[in-house]
Predict the 3D structure of the following.
Amino acid sequence: MADDFEITDEMKAQIGQETEPWTYEVTTTGVRMYARGIGSTDPVHYDVDFAKKQGFRSIVAPYGFLGTPVFHPDTNDGTFGFPRRAGGPRLNLPFKGLLDGGTETEYFDVICAGDVLEETSHLADIKARGNMVFLTNESVYKDKASGKVVAKQRLTSIHM
Amino acid sequence: MAEQTYFEDVSEGQELPEIKISPDKQQLVKFAAGSGDFNPLHFDENFPMLKPMGLTENIVHGRFKYAQVGRLVFGFAGYQGRVKKFGVQYRGMDKLNQPIIAKGIVTAKRQESGENLVDLDVWTENAEGKKNTPGTATVALPSRS
Amino acid sequence: MVQVYFEDINVGEEIPQLKKNCSTQQLVLWAAGSGDFYQIHYYKDFAQSTGLKGLIVHGALKNAFLGQLLHDWIGEKGELRRFGCSYRGMDEPNQDILCRGVVTKKYQDGGKNMVELDVWTEKPDGKKTSPGTAVVTLPSKA
């Protein structure tokens, strides 16, 4: 389309470039704060003894929460917390506006406090519609100790 | 958490009990704390990016709405069920202090690799019934036997 | 960071100042870090409904800034024993908050090099908003 922002070959070449892994910690404090943040009062997210009685390892991360990326001011974004790391896409889009486009999570296990996960991601798609660019990122979360995949996410962001 | 739902008791077309929340600014600040997303778009009424994005007031985080759908499907799955997958798109914006209602409908029941799976259409809608956050989900449920 | 030693400091000496300026985002980060979600720190209408002119900075955050002031000064070999302040005046976001300290005493106690200080935060017009004191230990050069 004549009016679409131009997606260059250089940008498309970034599709599939896997980042280096990053550690995500699922802590009791983090699980409880997220549960408070979404307005849930389910004791399985707050009370460790209760959660264990229901058969879980510890309090359960509400669906949508995959832990907190280990944060360092030198490497992580101050607003969103995500790590700037080797291997990921470097697109340098000229837009200041950013909106969330969509979130999809697939679970292979229940995430609980005490889990330490390792996440890698890659750019899966880049599309333009008018003067808006849609990026899709796919990430894989593995249990750091066992290497087992516990979740996958597909995230869409809109840059305008 | 309500009583455990069993696969045999679910039927296509069945509606899930809805989840309603009207987040005020404190709720969004708590969500910022919990999620790590401190974008001022959601709590600073003087944030300079509001105007260029065509907004006059702060909006609710998309992921906050995703999490309401998460609560909905977790409630359906129960402690013995498992949410296998759930995803939404952020099609419309929701403002502060307005009701956000998470709803779901069973679209299919099937068995795959020994699991009892239930597919659903899920979404959040606003007070006017506009589906701002449409999506789908798959939940595994235990059997009565 | 250069380590400061007990022998090199004098009573009456001012320690290096720390300048802070809190954006609304900073106040929300503090709410997250401290667990204090009181709305007078980020929700203007609420703040005004309680009789305040506008948003104010959490007192405990200013206390934490003074903690940072001292932590930066004592270096890795110093120890912060005690510090506290009173929240006498209000500070607002997007305005400079200057953290300052002055050495008031030097002495030895039980083999430790003790230093006492007056510490405080002040507004751009010089008004002291959070006056307080601190007790630290510093290493010897020997």
About this structure: The mean pLDDT of chain B is 96.
